[in-house]
Structure formats: structure tokens, C-alpha cells
Amino acid sequence: MVISVDAYLLDVSAEKLIINVKKSIFEYIRNMLSKKTKYGIKALAFIAKKSDRKPVQTSEISKSENISQKFLESILLELRKSGFLGSKKGKGGGYYLIKEPESILMTAVIRVLEGPIAMVPCVSLNYYEKCDDCPSEETCSVHSLMIQVRDSTLKVLGDNTLADISAKK
């Protein structure tokens, strides 16, 4: 009986550790994001929270999320060109999601707005470049560390959809 209780406590502790690691990685990522990406995610989440799925005006998002309307317009245009949003002009116009929030992975949003997810180009899966100052990636301690950071970041972002983040308060 004590063994199963200890095993249960170990499972709970491991679960708490995983949750704390996820939170730490998410905080780290959040602090590394450009304002453009942060505002783009906030705008997408705002649009996703609208249950009626009607177009949302830029001014409404701007006011609610405290984002410069001019800057927001350029971000929303980029998200529209990338296939996340549609737009309607005129009365009742604005931006709306083209896909369901459950199908929009945060990895895709980050890549569109921010570019590579990897912190250094020598570990990027999509934008690989060899480092000029590194004689060997196999023996480079920075390279191996950045692979772990990349993989952890991809895991957290890949496990979160627009539906997940827009459900949070």
C-alpha cells in the first residue's frame, strides 16, 4: 500500500513538474516574442472568442486588446494573406477565422508572424544555416542545448491550438 501511495505521489510530482516546465517554456517564449507576434496571437484569440463568428472590426480588437489600430491592421493583413483570416469590406465587415480554432496550431501562427522557432539557425528545422563560428555541430555545447530548447518549444506550441489559448482568461 505504501508503495502505491509513493508511486502515486511520484506521478503527481512528475505531473506538477511537467506543468511547471510547460509554464516556464511558455513564459520564456512569451518574453521572446516580438510585439507583432504577441499582438497577432491576441487578435486571433479575440476573434476566436466571438461565438457568433461574424466579422470583427479592427477598431474593436484594437480597443479591447490595447493595440495601435494601424499596427494591428498590418498584422491582420499578414494573417489574412497567410490563410488564417478572411475579411469582409463594408457595413458589417471586419476579419473572421477561415479555419476552426481547434485546427490552428500555435507553431503555424508563430512561424508566420515571427519566422523560425529555433533560437539559432543551426538547429532550425525549416531555416537551417550552419554557424560560421562553429567547427563541429556534433561537439558544440550550444548546439545540443538549443536542440533541446527547440524541441521543448515545438512541443509546447504544437500542443496548443488557438482554441486552447482563446479559452483561457
TrEMBL record:
In the UniProt record, the signal sequence range is: none
Q: Which Pfam families match?
A: Rrf2
Look up keyword DNA-binding and say if it applies: yes
What's an example GO cellular component term for this entry? cytosol
**Recorded GO MF terms:** DNA binding; DNA-binding transcription factor activity
- Gene3D superfamilies on file: Winged helix-like DNA-binding domain superfamily/Winged helix DNA-binding domain
Keywords associated with the record: DNA-binding
Which InterPro entries does the UniProt entry name for this protein? Tscrpt_reg_Rrf2, WH-like_DNA-bd_sf, WH_DNA-bd_sf
NCBIfam families in UniProt: rrf2_super
Name by which UniProt lists this protein: Transcriptional regulator, BadM/Rrf2 family
Which species is this record about? Salegentibacter holothuriorum
